[in-house]
From TrEMBL:
Pathway assigned in UniProt: Protein modification; protein lipoylation via endogenous pathway; protein N(6)-(lipoyl)lysine from octanoyl-[acyl-carrier-protein]: step 1/2
Gene label: lipB
InterPro entries associated with the record: aa-tRNA-synth_II/BPL/LPL, BPL_LPL_catalytic, Octanoyltransferase, Octanoyltransferase_CS
Ligand binding (substrate): 94-101, 165-167, 178-180
This protein's name: Octanoyltransferase
Stored SUPFAM superfamilies: Class II aaRS and biotin synthetases
Main subcellular location: cytoplasm
GO biological process: protein lipoylation
Entry GO CC: cytoplasm
Misc. remarks from the entry: In the reaction, the free carboxyl group of octanoic acid is attached via an amide linkage to the epsilon-amino group of a specific lysine residue of lipoyl domains of lipoate-dependent enzymes.
Coiled coil start-end: none
Reactions listed under catalytic activity: octanoyl-[ACP] + L-lysyl-[protein] = N(6)-octanoyl-L-lysyl-[protein] + holo-[ACP] + H(+)
Superkingdom of source: Bacteria
Length: 232
């Protein structure tokens, strides 16, 4: 079995505004067009979260894609990694089990200060769900929560499939990690794991649902829905 990799460096994301500006007008937004290596992203999130806590950087929502890889959350079961040599596997440190990231999936890493906003973890996760639901609604897709199942689900021809994943970590009330929305990933790549430990359910994407959307369309929808849910 290929060993689970750990990041080996810390990379800070430059601040673009003082903290007071970010708090009063929402977080900074960063969009990366190229695939960001996972260790680089994880190190950057760690550094930014610490800077937010220290008051030296504003909050940040970071939209990006990764090269094909699997991540193991804190509840990951070894048996749910079905193809350990297919793609790199990383220990994520977030909640949840195994998930896939790759091109065509919009990952949204969210670094905000819950102590300033609302120090309630359940309310925060509920807001992330609502963010995804409202984003999907802009494409006439009905995303839904399911009791006992993390993520956002859609129903097609009587079959439930997962279209978005959620995995968070919170340290000293500052969040990192976040959400992953399937826009047009290679869905066969999910076959190397049991996604989120739920073998009986499939995965889908906006393109798989027959919607000719672009990543730029999704980014705009995410930004508009964020303002409704988190800044309204």
């Amino acid at each position: 079995m290929r060993p689970i990799k750990q990041p080996d460096e810390m990379i800070a994301i430059p601040s673009a505004a003082p903290l007071e500006t970010a708090v009063s007008h929402g977080p900074d937004w960063r969009i990366d067009d190229g695939a960001v290596p996972y260790p680089e992203a994880l190190a950057a999130m760690e550094a930014r979260a610490e800077a937010i806590r220290a008051g030296t950087a504003p909050e940040l929502v970071w939209l990006l894609e990764h090269p094909p890889l699997y991540t193991a959350g804190t509840s990951a079961q070894a048996g749910d990694l079905l193809a350990p040599d297919r793609f790199p596997v990383y220990r994520a440190g977030r909640g949840g089990q195994y998930t896939y990231h790759g091109p065509g999936q919009r990952v949204g890493y969210v670094m905000v200060d819950l102590k300033r906003r609302n120090p309630d973890v359940r309310a925060y996760v509920h807001s992330l769900e609502e963010w995804l639901i409202r984003t999907l609604a802009r494409f006439q897709v009905k995303g839904e929560r399911r009791e006992g199942r993390v993520g956002i689900w859609v129903e097609r021809d009587g079959v439930e499939k997962k279209i978005a994943a959620i995995g968070v970590r919170i340290r000293h009330w500052v969040t990192f990690h976040g959400v992953a929305l399937n826009v047009d990933p290679d869905l066969s790549h999910f076959a190397g794991i049991v996604p989120c430990g739920l073998a009986q359910y499939g995965v889908t994407s906006l393109i798989d649902l027959g919607l000719p959307v672009t990543m730029a369309d999704v980014d705009l929808a995410l930004r508009e829905a964020w303002d409704e849910v988190f800044e309204g």
